Amino acid sequence: TPVKDIVSTLEDYPIVTPFQLKFWEWVSFYYMCSLGDVYRAALPSALKLESETHVFLNPDFEAAEPLTLNEQKVFYLLSPEKASTIAEIEKRAGLTNAIPAIKSLADKGAAYINENIQDAYSAKTLSAVRLTRAYTDDELNDMLSGLGRAKKQQHLLTAFLHLNENNPIVTKKQLLEDADTSPAVLSELVKKKTLEVYDIEISRFDYGETNIESACELNTYQQQAYGEIIKSFEEQDTTLLYGVTSSGKTEIYIRLISDAISKGKQVLYLLPEIALTTQITNRLKTVFGNKLAVYHSRFNDNERAETWNRLLKDGETQVILGARSAIFLPFTSLGLIIVDEEHEGSYKQQDPAPRYHARNAAIVLANMYKAKVLLGTATPSIETYHNALSGRYGLVRLTKRHEDIELPQIAVVNTKELRRKKQMKSVLSPPLIEKVKEALEKKEQIILFQNRRGFASLLECKNCSWTPRCSHCDVCLTYHKGQRMLVCHYCGSTYRVPDVCEECKTPTLEFLGYGTERIEEEVNTLFPEAAVARMDLDTTRGKKSYEHIISRFEDNRTNILIGTQMVSKGLDFGYVSVVGILNADNLLNYPDFRAYEKAFQLITQVSGRAGRKNKQGLVMLQTAHPSHPVINFVKHNDYESFYQTQTEERKLFRYPPFFRLISIVVRGRDEKLTENAASQFTHALRQSFGGRILGPGKPPVSRIQSLYIRNILLKIENNASIQKVRETILFHQSTVFTNTDFKAILLHYDVDPV
Ligand code: ADP
Ligand code: ZN
Ligand code: ZN
C-alpha cells in the first residue's frame, strides 16, 4: 500500500511519551498480549477518536412501565461511565440484533447513544458574553439611555455591566439568570453589536475552593514508621508497610507525598477501584488542592482525557490518585508510587487483555523512572510478604492502631451446633441478633457482611431437585427479588421466574441460600425500627449511589449496613461497634490455591471496620467449622503462623511465590473442537516443558457466554528466563494453531493469574 501524506495533526505536541511506549511494550511482552491490547487499555477512548456508536446508561432512570425482556438484557449490561459498543452489547446479551432494544431504551430515557463521544478530543466549552469593544463611561451611559424604550434590553445591559464589574468573565447562563430574561433579548443586543457571545474553555472537573490544611501531626508510631521507610528507601526500591487496620497508614503516605512533590517529583497513589471513595479523595484534596488529580473508571472518557492532558502539559498536577489503569498515564517526573491495599486481587485485570497486575507492573514502571514504591496493607499478600522476608523488599511494621484503640474482639458462632439444636431461625444467629439489638439501643452502627448478592443463590424443585441454569453459561441462576428475575452472574442474562418445575411440572420451587437482598429483607423484619442500607453491585450502579450509601452511613443516618466485599474496602467509619460475618464457609470452600489467603484477608479487612475512633469493636463470625485453621488464625490475628502454613503448602505443591504460573485458556463454540485444540496444544507444550504442564482441564464454570473453556497450566521455576519460556510457548502455538480446523478457537494467556 502506498504511503499517505499527513494532512494535519490534532495537537502540536505528542500525547504519548517515550517512557510510556517503553512501558507498554514491557506489558505486552510480559503479559503475552498484543501491543494493540495495551494501547486500548491505556488510552482513554476520547484520545482514540473512535467513530463507532457508543451506548451509556442513564443512572437516574426510573422505569415508568416494565421493560421488555430484550430491553432488560441490554439495560443491565450498560454502565453510566463506560461506553459499550453495539457489538459488545449484542455479544454479552446474546442478541443477534440489539439495535431495536437500544433505540427504545434511548427513547424511554434509560440510555444515551454517543453522548460524550463526538467532541471527545476538544476541551469542554461554555458560552460567555462580553462587550464588542472597550467603551468609555460616557459612551456606556449614552448607550443605556439610547435603549430608553427597549426596557428589557436596558435591564439586561445594566445587569451585564454590574456582573462585569467584579468578574472579567460573565457566562451567558449567569447573565440570563441574573437579568431574569430570555435569550431573545440578548440576541437583540448582539444584533446591535453592543454585546457578543464567545466560547471559553472550562475544566470538566469542579475544582471549587478547597481549604488547604496542613497534614496531621504524626503520632509516635507513625513517626517511627515514617523514619524507617525513608531509611529503607536508601537501600531498597520497594518497601512494604505492614500496618494493622486503622493504624493511620494514609497519614504516612501523605507525608511521603509531600516530601516527593517538594523535590519536584510526581506521585502515583494507587488504590483498588472500589476503595477510591470520596473519603480518601477529600482527605487528599484538603492537603494537596489542585496539585491532585483523580483517575478511575467512574470518570467518563473526556474527564480522563483532560487529566491525561493536564499531566502532560501543566506542571501543576503532581499527585495522581487512581485505580489500576492509572499506571498508563503520561508521567514526566515520577518519584514515588504508593500501592495501597497491595494484597487486593482486583489489581489484576481479568478481561479483556492486557491481563496485567497493577502492583507488579507499578514496580517495573517505578524502575524505569528510578522511583520508589511503597506497598501498604494490613494483610500482606503471600507473595509480597515472601519478598519482604527474603530481603528483596524493605519491611516496615506498624502494629498499633491510632490512639491505641484495640483491634476488634472476634467471637466465633458455631452455626452447625445451633442448627442441630434448631436455634437458627434466620441467617442471623441468636447471639448475633442479641448483639445487634444491644448496639442499636446504644445508637451504635452495625455492618453485616455476606459475600453473595441477589436474593437466593438457587431456585430448586423440592420434588426432583431441578434448578434453572443459564443457557449461555454452565452455572445456576441467582434470584433477584427487586427485578423479579433470575440473573446469570457470569454473562448478565436475565430470565423469567418459572411457576412450575420444568422437569417434573410440579409447582414446588423453593429458594435456597442467602444473598444480600434476602438478608436485607430478614433484617428489616427482625429490626423494623432500624434504618437499613445495602451496598452491593446491584445498589451501586448509578454514578453517585455508592457515595450516597457511604455518606449516609458516615453521618449515622443508617444504622445497619449490609454488603458484599464492597464494605471491606478502605472505609473509615466512626461508630461501628458490631460486624457480623454471616457465612465464613462460603469463603473457605473455594476451589483455588489462594482461597485461604483471600478468606484470611477478607475476614480481617471486614473485621477492621469495627471499633474505630472510640472503643474496641466486636466481630461475630458465623461458621459451621469453628475449628478450621484459618478461622483460628484470623481469631488470634496470627498472620505469621498463617503465612507459615501457606508457604509450606505452596512450596510442596509448586505454587507462587516459589513457582510462576501461566494459565493458558482455550475457548470455542464447539465443545469437541475446543477439547481437541486444548489437548493438541498441551501435548505440544509437554514436549518442551514436561511435567511442568498440567491439563487440559475443565474450570469450575466450563462454559461462559456460549463458549466452552479448557485450561492448561504451566508452572515454571522462578529463575527461568521469561524470554525463553515465552518463545517456546509461542513456537508451539504457531505449530498447533496453523491447523485451519482451529480457526474459530480463541486462545489467550493469563500470566501470574490470581
Ligand atoms: P489505615 O489506612 O491504616 O487503616 P487510616 O489512615 O484510615 O488507617 O487512619 C485511621 C483513622 O485514624 C482515620 O480516621 C484517621 O483520620 C485517623 N488518624 C490517623 N493518624 C492520625 C494522626 N496522626 N492524627 C490524627 N488522626 C489520625
Ligand atoms: Zn421438579
Ligand atoms: Zn450466563
From TrEMBL:
Report the co-factor binding details. Binds 2 zinc ions per subunit.
Matching CDD domains = DEXHc_priA, SF2_C_priA
Domain Helicase C-terminal residue range list: 471-650
Q: Does the keyword Endoplasmic reticulum apply?
A: no
User: What Enzyme Commission number(s) does the record list for this chain?
Assistant: 5.6.2.4
Highest taxon in the source lineage:
Bacteria
Cofactor section: Zn(2+)
Task: Please state what the protein is called.
Answer: Replication restart protein PriA
Gene behind the chain: priA
